[in-house]
Prior knowledge:
This protein has about 400 residues and is of the alpha+beta class. It has helices spanning about 50-65, 85-105, 130-140, 165-170, 175-180, 200-205, 220-230, 265-285, 295-310, 325-335, 340-345, 345-360, 365-375, 375-390, and strands at about 30-40, 65-70, 75-80, 110, 150-155, 185-190, 190, 210, 240, 245, 250-260, 315, 325. The N and C termini lie far apart (about 45 Å).
Amino acid sequence: MSSEPHGESAPTDAPEPARAPGTGQAPAPLTVGIEEEFLLIEPDSRALSPRGPQLAGEAVGELGDRVGTELTRYQVELRTDPHTCLKEADDQIRSTRTAAARTAARLGLRIASTGTPVLGQAAPVPITPGARYARSAAHFRALDDEQTACACHIHVGLPDPRDAVHVSNHLRPWLPALTALSANSPFQGGRDTGYASWRTMTWGRWPVAGPPPYFESPAHFDDLVDILLETEALIDRGGLYWDIRPSHHLPTIEIRVADAALTPDDTLLLAAVVRALTATALTALQAGEPAPRPTPELLRAACWRAARDGLAGHGIDPLTGRLAAQTTLVERLLHTITPALRQHEDLDLVREQWQHLRTEGTGADRQRAAYRNRSSTHDVVDYVISATCPS
C-alpha cells in the first residue's frame, strides 16, 4: 500500500521508535471477546437465504446484543462477552451458536460457518437495510456485490489502548501463519477455488484491507486514518478493514485475519493463539524489543501463499523470504507464544487442538474431504451445517 512509511525494509534489529505513554504490560489474564459471522442456508436447495435481519430480530430476545446483522441479508453476526477464562468463552460460543441455530430452524433455515458461500449467490447481493450499508453500497459500488464473506474477529483487551498500534506492529509478521491456521473457505459459487482461504483473496479488494502498515507511532496511525477518511478511501473508521486494527469503539485490539471458524473448537484455538500473541507482544514492548519489519511486498506474498495452501505444503517466511513447511511456520508461532499460553492456562488446549488440525486438517481440508465422498457441493453444505453446531 502506498501509505507505507519510508524505511519499511529497515533491519529487524533497528530500534523501535519511542512510544506514547503506556505500560506495555500484560495483566494476567487478558480478556478476549469473539465475533463470528454465519451464512443462512435453505436446507432443501442449500442456497443462501436473505433472512438474516429476520433471524437477528427473532433471536434478540434470547441473545440480546450478542446477535446482530451484517452487510448482506445472507449473514448474521454472533458475539461473546469479554472473557478471561476460555472455558467460559467456549461455553458461550457453543450456547450462542445453538440458540441461533434453534431460531434458524424455527424459520425453516440453517446456519453455516464458512468463509465464503459454497454455492452461488445472487448478484448484486441483497444488502441489509440501514443508512451505513446503503452508503457503503453507493460508495464502493460493485465491491459490495461479492462480499458475502464471513470472518471470525478476536478482540483482546489492552491495559492501555495507546499500546494497540505497537502491538499491531509485533503481530503483523504472524498474519500468514494465522491465515493458514484458520483457513475455511475453499469453495465459492459451486466450485473449488484452489485456495484454502478464498475469503482472504476477496476481502483484499477493499481499499483499506489486508496486512496493516508498520506504524511509527500512535500519531502516525491517526494521521494515516485521517488521510484515508479525507480521500474517501474510508467512509468511516468502522471501514478500516486491515487484518489487525485498534478497535474504534472498544479498548481492544481486533485481529480480523481469520475465516469464520468451522467448529467451536476451531474458534477457541484461534482465540487462545491470538490472546497469547497479544500478551507476548506486550511483554516485548515492556522489554523494549523492536518489532520485526517485513517488507509489505514480502508480507503480502506470504499472506497470499498461506491463503492458497493453508497448512498444506510450504509457506513463505515473511522475515527471510524463504520457503518453509507451513506447519513449521505455525509451530514456530506456537513456540514463541508458549510462555503466554502457559500464563493463561491455555497450553494444553492449544496443544490438543493443534494435534487435531495436524490430523484432521483445517476447516478447508475438512470441507474438501466432505466433497470427495460423492463429488457433491451439497454434501459440503450439509457437512458445514452439522459442524457449525456439533451435538
